[in-house]
Amino acid sequence: MKVRDLIDKMGLTLFSGELCLDKEISGGYVSDLLSDVMGNAAEGQVWITLQSHKNIMAVASLKDLAAVILVKGQAPDTDTMAHSIEEQVPILGTDQEAFETAGQLYHLLNA
Amino acid sequence: MEFRYEIEGGNFSRAGHASSAVKKILKQLNVDNKVIKRVVVALYEGEVNVVAHAEKGSMMVDIDEQRIRIRIEDSGPGIPDIDLAMQAGFSTASAAVREMGFGAGMGLPNMKKNTDQMHVTSEVGKGTQVEMITWFRQ
Q1: pLDDT value of residue B137
Q2: CATH number assigned to the domain covering A3-110
Q3: Is there a contact between A34 and B102 if contact means CB atoms under 8 Å apart?
Q4: Histidine kinase/HSP90-like ATPase domain: from which residue to which, for each copy (chain B) (predicted)?
């Protein structure tokens, strides 16, 4: 499944990175600890988090993640969005909590 | 080939710039993707440690055909007990740094796990030096 399809199926907000929605999703990772993501997330995964500051994009880009989903209505600041465009990792959003978001993603990827 | 990057203490908005630059170089040199993935973790954690704890620092990267050697030096508080600092979960990061999702005590263990050799030296009140080597042929 591509990031583009995920946005449609989960009704996610697209904050930034509309030019890089064709990345294939390999899985998901849920964490708010940046070192945990750095150490354990894998290429192509979608990262679900409530952290919305600029450093999430450095991590997402270094790890070649497919996209970041901000939960609980969190919105990225302009710096974070600029970095997302530069690094070509889309930032998506939802009002749901991480539990529901991860559940839906898991279901979609394993359906 | 040698490269040097300056790291600004306290400036989280630039954290990751040096790591990202080195990653691009390794890709250009066609280094094995698995090696790049490991090295990037060590680079970023080392860079963030300087940003989170020190006043300033530098990252020196030396690449030859066999290996990449990374040396990160900072001017900062130093580490009184390196063995303790190496323990997963131990951190002296401030509350503000922890709130951003850093300071979980995973940095140094992540660096050790993702390099072939790592050596840390430190002097309290002066600074810390970390040297890491990763071989391209695993």
Answers
A1: 83
A2: 3.40.1390.20
A3: yes
A4: 45-132
